[in-house]
């Protein structure tokens, strides 16, 4: 017994030194990370501290925190953050927040939702009140996956999600340079043309429209899922140089779901078969064996058609960047070049989804956003959901799984299977995508708009993600101990 006590006394200073060394390693890592901006070096010190003090939640936390926020490696960070969660007997909020955000960045939205609910439960069991961050984040997660009803139920008053999903009215005044555009299409001698009005959808209705067009007869017409303003002049007369279009559009995002419930391959007997197979003379690369093999490889791990669609769209967002328009005659060539604008994103996504035999179509519209002002033409797509017989909007540029559409986005045209911007109808009248008037001479100086939030009785001026989504850090390092 005496010898045993002597051994303990002999090794006690060494054990103490190791304990102190773990804290020193941790503090040195903090200094390297925050004061000297050397995250890779800091990571080594945090790993040493974790090896020496494996039961301190702050040690694996800082490893995961550094990997996720500084070295942009959430996949490697996740196991460390989950370990810090398990060691967090004090119920500090930081391990919870970072783990949830890490799951979100990895696209594991459903698991992030589960973890958020579990974190709130654990905090309450420990006698703590979860901060506002948790319900706001939970509402954002539901919003991200398209469950707007659940998002609204959870979102606290005054939160970003609440304001984004508030019912709104959008008033638009658009001075369209008509003569210039009809000459560009070489149809100025036609006595009747149609231009698109905003597409009606479950969450969006055109309440009223008015056209100030002296000497022009106007009427509203619906065709191929689009609404048109038909313009007719008397034979032998000239078209007015400009027409004024006034629109009032009501939106209620409580009725939208941005994630299809069920996808299935289209067959020749389906009404939307053309939207799953149209190749437009090779543009969508549906007869290119290399492109088809690439889509098959990208989506191979998906068990359902919906999962395969997610894999295809996630690949596009990861490997294609918004930038300079590229040359080429097919979506395969565009994808290989790796950069293009929103229209290229949409066309490539159409090609990838049609390679899976999913009905999909492109939309052109106006984003009435204030970042940047005033309004921008924007291209997105719609995926056909067989279970609801509904076209579901999706922004292929969005970093969410089935991309969240900006609430104030107004689609003016749902494309035909070939995605033509002008279409000769069966009655011989040309139907033209109004957004082309924006791109070709009726730009931002010819359009004005006002967005009124019905619930808040205020004008919406911004549309951006909440701060906690944009900011990688959740509140700095944990206490040094």
TrEMBL record:
Q: Where is this region: Disordered?
A: 462-481
Among Gene3D superfamilies, the record links this protein to:
3.10.620.30, Tetratricopeptide repeat domain
Which part of the chain is the Transglutaminase-like domain? Answer: 295-396
Record flagged with keyword Acetylation: no
| Short name of any one Pfam family annotated for the protein | Transglut_core
Name the InterPro entries on file: Papain-like_cys_pep_sf, TPR-like_helical_dom_sf, Transglutaminase-like
Q: Which UniProt keywords apply?
A: Signal
User: Any signal peptide, and if so, which residues?
Assistant: 1-19
Top-rank lineage group of the source organism: Bacteria
> Which PANTHER family has this protein been placed in?
BLR5614 PROTEIN-RELATED (PTHR33490), SLL1049 PROTEIN (PTHR33490:SF6)
Descriptive protein name? Transglutaminase-like domain-containing protein
Q: Which organism is it from?
A: Leptospira idonii
């Amino acid at each position: 017994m005496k010898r045993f006590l002597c051994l303990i006394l002999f090794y006690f200073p060494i054990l103490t030194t190791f304990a102190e060394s773990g804290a020193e390693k941790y503090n040195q890592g903090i200094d390297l990370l925050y004061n000297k901006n050397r995250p890779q070096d800091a990571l080594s010190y945090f790993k040493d501290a974790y090896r020496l003090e494996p039961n301190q939640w702050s040690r694996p936390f800082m490893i995961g925190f550094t990997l996720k926020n500084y070295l942009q490696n959430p996949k490697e960070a996740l196991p460390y953050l989950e370990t810090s969660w398990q060691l967090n007997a004090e119920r500090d909020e930081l391990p919870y927040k970072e783990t949830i955000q890490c799951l979100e960045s990895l696209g594991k939205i459903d698991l992030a939702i589960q973890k958020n609910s579990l974190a709130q439960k654990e905090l309450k069991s420990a006698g703590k009140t979860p901060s506002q961050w948790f319900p706001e984040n939970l509402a954002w997660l539901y919003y991200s996956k398209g469950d707007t009803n659940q998002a609204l139920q959870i979102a606290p008053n005054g939160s970003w999600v609440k304001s984004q999903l508030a019912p709104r009215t959008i008033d638009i005044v658009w001075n369209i340079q008509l003569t210039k555009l009809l000459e560009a299409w070489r149809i100025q001698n036609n006595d009747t043309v149609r231009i698109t009005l905003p597409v009606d959808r479950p969450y969006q209705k055109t309440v009223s429209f008015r056209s100030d067009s002296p000497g022009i007869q106007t009427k509203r017409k619906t065709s191929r899922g689009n609404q048109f303003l038909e313009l007719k002049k008397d034979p032998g007369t000239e078209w007015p140089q400009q027409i004024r279009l006034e629109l009032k559009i009501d939106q209620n995002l409580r009725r939208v779901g941005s994630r299809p419930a069920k996808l299935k391959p289209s067959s020749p007997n389906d009404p939307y078969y053309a939207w799953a197979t149209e190749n437009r003379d090779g543009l969508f690369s549906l007869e290119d064996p290399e492109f088809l093999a690439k889509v098959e490889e990208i989506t191979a791990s998906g068990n359902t058609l919906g999962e395969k669609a997610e894999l295809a769209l996630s690949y596009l967002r990861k490997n294609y960047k918004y930038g300079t328009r590229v040359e080429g005659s097919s979506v395969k060539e565009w994808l290989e070049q790796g950069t293009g604008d929103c229209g290229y994103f949409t066309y490539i996504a159409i090609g990838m989804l049609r390679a899976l035999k999913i009905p999909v179509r492109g939309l052109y519209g106006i984003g009435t956003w204030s970042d940047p002002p005033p309004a921008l033409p924007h291209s997105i797509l719609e995926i056909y959901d067989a279970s609801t017989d509904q076209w579901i909007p999706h922004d292929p540029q969005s970093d969410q799984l089935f991309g969240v559409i900006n609430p104030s986005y107004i689609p003016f045209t749902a494309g035909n299977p070939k995605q033509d911007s002008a279409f000769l109808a069966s009655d011989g009248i040309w139907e033209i995508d109004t957004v082309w008037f924006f791109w070709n001479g009726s730009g931002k100086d010819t359009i004005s708009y006002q967005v009124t939030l019905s619930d808040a009785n205020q004008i919406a001026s911004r549309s951006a993600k909440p701060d906690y989504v944009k900011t990688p850090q959740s509140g700095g390092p944990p206490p040094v101990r």
